[in-house]
Amino acid sequence: MISPIFFPGGNIGELAVNGTVNDVAMCGARPRYLSLSFILEEGLTMQAFWDILVGIKFAAEKAGVQIVTGDTKVVERGKGDKIFINTTGIGQMHPKASIGMDKIKPGDKIICSGYIATHGIAIMSLREGLEFETTLESDTACLNHTILALIDQFGSDIRLLRDPTRGGVATVLNEIARDSHHGVEIQQAQFKVMEEVEGACELLGLDPLYVANEGVFMAVVDPNSAETVLSALQKLEYGQHASIIGEVVEAHPRQVILHSKVGGRRVVNMLTGEQLPRIC
Amino acid sequence: MKHLTEYRDPHLVEQYATEIRHLATRPWNIMEVCGGQTHSLVKNGILQLLPPEVNMVHGPGCPVCVTPLHMIDKAIWLAEQPNMILCSFGDMLRVPGSRKSLLEAKAAGADVRILYSPLEAVKVAKDNPNKEVVFFAVGFETTAPANGMSVLHAHQLGVKNYSILTSHVLVPPAIEAVMNDPEARINAFLAAGHVCTIMGIDEYFPIAEQYKIPIVVTGFEPVDLLQGILMAVRQLEKGEHRVENQYSRVVRPGGNPAARNIIDRAFQVTDREWRGIGTIPMSGWELNDDLSGYDANRKFNVPQEKAPESTECIAGQVLKGIKKPFDCPQFGKKCTPSNPLGAPMVSSEGACAAYYYMRFEN
Question: Per CATH, is A6-93 categorized as 3.40.640.10?
Fold first, then answer.
């Protein structure tokens, strides 16, 4: 579910395909087959549906997946929200993949593959009542080719892969700290945030660390090959703006500590519910 | 982001922090009044840069935190009425009332909408002539001009199905309430830059004089805050008590005349209850009598009963700076952002939530 169903940089169809493809890829697998089902609300125009289908087709082609099964249901007007899409994907594990929370060790580096918070702000800029003028586009993308290229080259040096969608990078970092039982330290200055995105976040009182992404992944990698992984990633599609944003540490287990741009330190915690824009 | 990154310059930050460390010889309690400043101090890790002599105390300037429980209940009651659209700023939605929050009322089917400007609510009213539209008008002097403007705008357009539920609060009476509390030990204030942008700084001269305390009008960026703290420490060490304006790039001595004019036309001063603190005389605004048709509290038959506050929550002491969030036995245990006992745990500007999300355990 996503509202609005068409947004700069994509539509709900592409988003559904890319989301599932990325989920499969983050497990270290090559996504192969997708199921895809629609619940359509009476009144959705054929043109809109067609545009979504075209988005799905191109996204599936780009990702190299086949849509092999699915279903379509139509509900009465008012019983749905234009269109719901449900997808499931399966893939084949890459033989070199060795991914899991239990593989993470203190000293490992954490890479973020690109600009953060772009998707969330692009979507929010269209919501009723906000409508700030921007040329921002969602970063929705299929990351499987990039991911699999990295696994091909670096195998078990890639310890963990995650795509920070809803909840943003802060949520993924907290999951890493919580489930690996280690601490995480991150450098605020190393995160890349587009100027427009940063401006919008300032205006709305949102922290970009918690804003959704669709075309970004985070990788925990062996410290000895971190720089090589980074430069390889920077040559791959969707990886040009990658950076090492932090590392896994022995200190403060289960806690994420951010070193702020101005030289301070603070905890980054899990968020409760969605971020809500502030009063002033 | 031009004109913002300059105020986040790590070198300047370090320079000011060093100067504060050199200058502070005695323990000083400095209260930043505004929740936005609390948020920035914690978010940027500035508290860690200060010497042990300088103790920042987090004041009552979080509008979400000080809105009384019964106002939240009133908003929820209104939202649940048939043919009603209740509009609100986003961060009011999660605040727990005595039975539920606005977010829960929305989930149960009430038409609750998050808006970014009260003028949008007037548009909603125009677009829905068969419904009543209420805007939940909370906040300090900062949000009052826009809220007042929405009423004047509706009045001018003849939009009769619009009204506001007002819970406006004012900074200077809150500073006096803090100073009058026998338990509070505040040596200096950082006044809220945005409030002074609207109101100017004249209101603070008599307070500085009466209580012999330095008041520094301060901005919100790391460099602003450290410079404000430095100015306060400098005065304290010299034994001075003046009103100074750190935020002079935005705050004019007379404030914003156009905004003040709207406030004058729309509002009158009234006694106001502050959550966790109690009633402070002449500390709020309500709509002028001639605009009472736009006052949701008077327009609808809103139940006036007051539900009791949680007895376990020490919000009042936190908001007055007597205790820190960590001093609360329920902090992070029974009271968390997903199950808050009191409002400072709800809003991201609330001291408790800021500590919960971003501050090291002591």
Answer: no
